[in-house]
Amino acid sequence: MDGRAVPATFTGVRPAILGTPESRIVEIFNYGRARQGTIPLWVGEGDQPTARFICEAAEQSLRDGQTFYTYQRGIPPLRQALADYLNTQFKANVSDERVIVTGSGMQALHLTAELLLDPGDEVVMVMPVWPNIAAAVTLMGGVLRPVPLRIQDGRWHLDLDELFANCGPRTKALFINSPSNPTGWVMDGADMDRVVEFVRRRGLWLLSDEVYGRLVFDGRPQESFLSRMEPEERLIVINSFSKNWQMTGWRVGWAVIPPSLGQLWENLVQYNTSGVAEFMQRAAVAAITQGEPLVRSIVAQCEAGRDLVVERLGAVPRVRLARPEGAFYAFFAVEGEPDSLALAKRLVDEAGVGLAPGVAFGEAGEGYQRMCFAISPAKLAEALDRLAAALT
Amino acid sequence: MDGRAVPATFTGVRPAILGTPESRIVEIFNYGRARQGTIPLWVGEGDQPTARFICEAAEQSLRDGQTFYTYQRGIPPLRQALADYLNTQFKANVSDERVIVTGSGMQALHLTAELLLDPGDEVVMVMPVWPNIAAAVTLMGGVLRPVPLRIQDGRWHLDLDELFANCGPRTKALFINSPSNPTGWVMDGADMDRVVEFVRRRGLWLLSDEVYGRLVFDGRPQESFLSRMEPEERLIVINSFSKNWQMTGWRVGWAVIPPSLGQLWENLVQYNTSGVAEFMQRAAVAAITQGEPLVRSIVAQCEAGRDLVVERLGAVPRVRLARPEGAFYAFFAVEGEPDSLALAKRLVDEAGVGLAPGVAFGEAGEGYQRMCFAISPAKLAEALDRLAAALT
To answer: pTM here?
Structure first.
């Protein structure tokens, strides 16, 4: 709680809640929010508002009076469009009944934890990882078993044997986020095959966060666990409109689940936010059915941004950076700077650049900084100039 | 689960989830959704889309590019507008820091349960009640202790001594929804004073769902527990834009909490849906600051609707109806019809009127039907004609 004491009169609050930390990303965001001229690269979003054709679909829906309660699982045309999209882009074979629209990818993660985790249930998780995922687990009383990514030969690397060895008798699920926030690590297809074989054999749930699934570089194939598993297997895939369609502020995502869980999941939606506004969903239909040129331009911009970051930060002697293979973050260590939150604050104050401290992503991330490079080239170049000067 | 068996392969799902029922309101809604000509009075919404001035504020915000991540607790102008509103309408003394914008009143209830309830913790609840509230408690492993409303002298009545006697050593909170969905019962000020005195003495949390707080009839005063308790007392008040501003489909609500819980609540928002879209919040600002004429017209329409329902249904010999004193539902029993779901389905098929079966609101509601009367007078009159014919 960072010194914000909860008074004794609130001992009535759940202990698990007291143990769930404030987001350190939000903390640095709040720290620097009001500082004029800061280039904000702390959160995972670009600098362009949502494309007009997407907004216009929402505006038209509002003018059409689509402001009533709607389907808890999502409107049928959006569920169908999402199934078509997954089948086209990822060679999956998903029926619309497996697709559930959610109020953000985060909500899909939250509902997954609610669906599966009783106190003491373990989730084995590749770290460092976006902190909200770990929090969704601990909120339900679940226990994290972290398995670290390590840098080998200038690339992030996951030891699959170590991953599997961490799955014990209380393990309920394996969580994988590839492409990875914050590291840019991407699991390759052969490793995905091994993971599928392992979870099948052990009867584990596989939770796959594929929010950055379109953002892979260097001509790598776009992969999804959806193309590797059957509908009724223990697989939940989480996704979002935030990153690929520049809709961060909208809070619209989706989950793909086994069809027999449909009614249970609908109940969870009902008892959480009771669905997503129809006019938001109409905008999502526009994004998914007309958004391919936009997505491709975003991916191209991110790849160019990745190249620039690797070139410029890679030339700073104190910086150690593995080349990101996907997503839109550089996750780099700075020699002599073990306290990532202190450095992040100093970079706001002295360089006018907002980064997310690595400690926000778990202990494995301490000593690192996360920088989002999904922004326009000129602004990115300016941020890199400032960082290079401050870190040299 | 009503016969929808979960296969044995999903024994991995939490038992508490399997025990959380499908919403019977949604069940009847889905049953009759496609039947042409049905007058839908099953869910709690009117027949008018959201007012243009509210939609236009969202459209303008979209044109202004307000599509980025925003404040987890809500944008400052909305929090301030809500505090001003509560202080004006309910003679409260609420500072903006106590107001948190949520993705529906439902989400505020869900987060309240997450904040307070560990498995086995009890919530004493006046029943019948909107089923989602009970579900939010049981999802967290909480235990309901229902205390029934009873009809006395043609009015719904709560025995406060019975309510207090149900609070035992494991009781964490007292939940009150007044004006009440589904009964239309309204707790009077003297009883509110007694409740405050009791929860203070016993150190209980008071959870007050004031979603229908403006909808009181016959010149009764509008009351809120906010005007009766101090900021740091154990009070959480839940509210929503859905009913008073005809924004059901938007999913925007708010909670008023003790100020020292601000950071904990922000964490819960962060790890659930990570906030509400800014353009939705701009619409909410328009609703709250320019919506008084709209709210007054909705209240007037509901009171006229209430009068018509009492007059027409009260004349049907088989119907027993206590006069609703608030909210916008009639909750009536039909002689010789103990199975409320069966009757609700028959009324869809034979009368073309969609009602919510009383069993959806707990066992205390079996034998009753809930009818929303927040619709235009001509449509309400037609629905009452059909019901009178079918029930005579």
So the answer is: 0.95
From chain B, the residues in CB contact with A23 under 8 A are: 267, 270
Last residue of a domain, one of A290, A323, A349: A290
Contact A68 B58 (CB under 8 A): no
> Looking at beta carbons, which residues of chain A come within 8 Å of B62?
50, 55, 58-59
Task: Give yes or no: residues A129 and A200 share one domain.
Answer: yes
How many folded domains does chain B comprise? 2
Are residue B133 and residue B19 in the same domain, yes or no? no
Cβ-defined contact of B68 to A277 (cutoff 8 Å): no
For B273, which of A106, A172, A279 is closest by C-beta distance? A106
Domain CATH code at residue B317: 3.90.1150.10
Asked if residue A367 is part of any domain, the answer here is yes
Could you write out the three-class secondary structure of B241-284?
Answer: CCCCCCCHHHCCEEEECCHHHHHHHHHHHHCCCCCCCHHHHHHH
The C-alpha atoms of residue B252 and residue B240 are separated, in whole angstroms, by 6
Query: Pick from A69, A115, A272: which is nearest to B14 by CB?
Result: A115
Q: Within this chain, do residues B260 and B362 fall inside the same structural domain, yes or no? A: no
Per-residue pLDDT of chain B (392 residues; tens, 9 = 90+): 333 444 444 567 888 888 777 888 888 888 888 888 999 999 999 999 999 999 999 999 999 999 999 999 999 999 999 999 999 999 999 999 999 999 999 999 999 999 999 999 999 999 999 999 999 999 999 999 999 999 999 999 999 999 999 999 999 999 999 999 999 999 999 999 999 999 999 999 999 999 999 999 999 999 999 999 999 999 999 999 999 999 999 999 999 999 999 999 999 999 999 999 999 999 999 999 999 999 999 999 999 999 999 999 999 999 999 999 999 999 999 999 999 999 999 999 999 999 999 999 988 899 999 999 999 999 999 999 999 999 98
Q: At what angle do helices B377-391 and B292-314 cross, to 10 degrees?
A: 20
Check if the beta carbon of residue B371 is closer than 8 Å to that of residue B329. yes
In a domain, A1, yes or no: no
What is the spatial distance between Cα A82 and Cα A76, in angstroms, rounded to a whole number? 10
A106, B272 Cβ separation under 8 angstroms:
yes
Strand order in the sheet with A356-357: A319-321, A329-334, A368-372, A356-357
Same domain, A356 and A250: no
> What number is the ipTM of this complex?
0.95
Are the beta carbons of B118 and A249 separated by less than 8 Å? Answer: no
Domain boundary among A290, A324, A351: A290
Q: How far apart are CA A173 and CA A233, in angstroms?
A: 13
Nearest CA in chain A to B130: A271
Distance in angstroms (rounded) separating the CA atoms of residues A219 and A91: 17
- A145/A116 same-domain check: yes
Q: Write out chain B residues lying below 8 Å of A107, CB-based.
A: 272-273
Asked if residue A3 belongs to a domain, the reply is no
User: A17 and B118: CB-CB below 8 Å?
Assistant: no
Q: Do A144 and A250 reside in the same domain of the chain?
A: yes
- Closest partner residue to A273 (CB to CB) among B59, B107, B260 is B107
- How many A/B residue pairs have CB atoms within 8 Å? 216
**CATH number of the domain that B110 lies in?**
3.40.640.10
Closest residue to B205, CB basis, from A6, A12, A110: A12
What is the domain range of residue A268?
Answer: 67-290
